[in-house]
Amino acid sequence: MASNVEAPERWYLALLGFAEHFRTSSPPKIRLCVHCLQAVFQFKPPQRIEARTHLQLGSVLYHHTKNSELARSHLEKAWFISQQVPQFEDVKFEAASILSELFCQQNLVDSAKPLLRKAIQISQQTPYWHCRLLFQLAQLHTLEKDLVSACDLLGVGAEYARVVGSEYTRALFLLSKGMLLLMERKLGEVHPLLTLCGTIVENWQGNPIQKESLRVFFLVLQVTHYLDAGQVKSVKPCLKQLQQCIQTISTLHDDEILPSNPADLFHWLPKEHMCVLVYLVTVMHSMQAGYLEKAQKYTDKALMQLEKLKMLDCSPILSTFQVILLEHIIMCRLVTGHKATALQEISQVCQLCQQSPRLFTNHAAQLHTLLGLYCISVNCMDNAEAQFTTALRLTTHQELWTYIVTNLASVYIREGNRHQELYSLLERINPDHNFPVRRFLRETLKMSNAEDLNRLTACSLVLLGHIFYVLGNHRESNNMVVPAMQLASKIPDMSVQLWSSALLKDLNKALGNTIDAHEAAQMHQNFSQQLLQDHIAACSLPEHNLISWTDGPPPVQIQAQNGPTTSLASLL
After folding, report:
1. What angle do CA 379, 351, 406 make, to 5 degrees?
2. Number of neighbours of residue 265 by Cβ within 10 angstroms
3. Would I find Protein biosynthesis among this entry's keywords (predicted)?
4. What angle do CA 330, 287, 392 make, to 5 degrees?
5. pLDDT tens-place string over residues 292-310
6. Where do the H-state alpha helices sit in 122-207?
7. For the chain, which terminus, N or C, has the lower number of CB atoms within 10 Å?
8. Which pLDDT belongs to residue 436?
């Protein structure tokens, strides 16, 4: 040993080198890595080395083992010791950040919050960590559904970023706040905020990838805002900009030059994740507009991309994207008359939710709603009612609640003997029912036409056509049913096609058009046969037993059954 000063450096660097070698081996040798780091304490190192080693041990144990108690012990020591060492910000705040993550994982949120608050309080001279910890605490509040506290923190972050001269991170804070305000339906606050964000994003001159990623974030919020309002025609310019923006990003190379302002050291999402997100909002648009083949095409592209990404990346957001994509494509399948495929995809959602309790908590109501829709499609009305009742119990989301209740009302209508329950539901959906139904349908038709909502237009047309037929106004009925059939074929919507062809058969028969009546009857027969075959295929699948699941987490294994449990005749 040359000197007492050099000795600790040499043994420390040697042990650190061994630990890193074992950690990055393929496969990683975590036990040997931990042994090397623990050996550091045998040399009674100075506080700086002691605190850093506790952080390294805590991080390795947290990320690579299930020994959360030992990880917690090391991280708590790192946090405690580092506060006594001057100018030791990175170790101090990284320890606080990882320790609060561990607390959340152990459902000790009440321990994570004060830890983050203290770290935020003492990090004001360290812009990167101050901003990162503010984002982290805001995320924690968001996961707890405390969006007001989360918005407040994001507002604090935006003002801090402005003061330290980081317009880029200011925009990230403001866009994140805008996202939460959209979730809260505080539309009056969203408009001025998005306008401000648009100005900041356009004026900011910096790393091209960071600028384009801000633009993607901004446009995703704009597009989802339009789609929430059902404005699928008005959103098209924004959606086109978003698609062009993601194409621009995919041609840019990542710039290795770090920003000069440490507060700018943030990325919203990796490029690959942004690509999937743009596919996702495109699917949402296609679904609402009634371009179901286009929705299926983009879903297939997005799911292929996700499968590739998940081989290398275990980020939870990828599973969330996958579930939302599957939820949309399942609804497409049910509309286009592919129930068996829809059921298998519902089972895929169940499997994804089994792997993540948080994912299941966030999507349980949607999952039971989808099962309810499937049950309607195969005429299992008792199961449909049970699924929708379960979904209502699990949701606090107003739009989803309304959607579930209207579908439950359709179950009562189909059953024919549930008048009292139906009237009670209708009272809850629309207490003010002073307008005649025909006016409602005319208004629906007017609104859906204005925004190119093809499915809503087709459904409104066929229902109006049916009403006119019952009233004996055959000419007006024909004027409604023919375009309904054309639109339903374009979507394609199997139920509306079946309904329209039945009406056309009866209409032409009443008008004495024998050839047209025969042609419509043949179409109706073809649609019926397709639905019947798909019905048999779906009810024969082992996944069909999911219709009985109404409580707890998704069943792990689904037993096969002998065959269909519902009357096939009820389909016709």
Report:
1. 35
2. 16
3. no
4. 55
5. 999 999 999 999 999 999 8
6. 127-143, 147-163, 167-183, 187-203
7. N
8. 52
3-state secondary structure 439-459: HHHHHHHHHHHHCCCHHHHHH
Per-residue b or e along 182-195, where b marks 16 or more CB atoms closer than 10 Å to that residue's CB: bbeeeeeebeebbe
**3-state secondary structure string across 282-335:** HHHHHHHHCCHHHHHHHHHHHHHHHHHHHHHCCCHHHHHHHHHHHHHHHHHHHH
Calpha distance 102→60 (Å, rounded): 12
CA distance 405 to 3: 79
Task: For residue 530, give both structure tokens.
Answer: 């397709």
pLDDT number for residue 215: 94
CA dist., res. 400 & res. 392, Å (int): 9
Q: Contact 421/444 with Cβ under 8 angstroms?
A: no
CATH 1.25.40.10 fits 11-141, yes or no: yes
Predicted local confidence at residue 315, as pLDDT: 86
Q: Give the span between the Cα atoms of 305 and 313, in whole angstroms.
A: 12
Q: How far apart are CA 319 and CA 303, in angstroms?
A: 10
pTM: 0.86
Q: What are phi and psi of 473, to 5 degrees?
A: -90, 80
Q: How far apart are CA 359 and CA 320, in angstroms?
A: 7
Note the pLDDT of residue 437. 52
98 neighbors 104 (Cβ within 8 angstroms): no
The answer to whether 171 touches 212, Cβ cutoff 8 Å, is no
C-alpha closest to that of 502 among 471, 529, 523, 477: 523
Rg (CA), the chain: 29
CA–CA distance, 217 with 179 (Å, rounded to integer):
9
Residue 396: both structure tokens together: 């606090």
Q: Helices 47-64 and 6-23 meet at what angle, rounded to 10?
A: 10
Say if CB 305 and CB 272 are below 8 A apart: yes
d(CA 310, CA 348): 15
Q: Where are the domains of the chain?
A: 11-141
Specify the pLDDT at position 257. 61
What confidence tens digit (pLDDT) does each residue in 418-462 have?
888 888 888 887 655 554 555 778 888 888 989 989 999 999 999
CB under 8 Å to 253, separation ≥6 — which residues?
A: none
Point out the residues of the chain with pLDDT beneath 50: 1-7, 435, 559-572
* pLDDT (0 to 100) of residue 442: 83
Q: Which residues of 544-567 are buried (b: 16+ CB within 10 A; e: fewer)?
A: bebbebeeeebeeebeeeeebebe
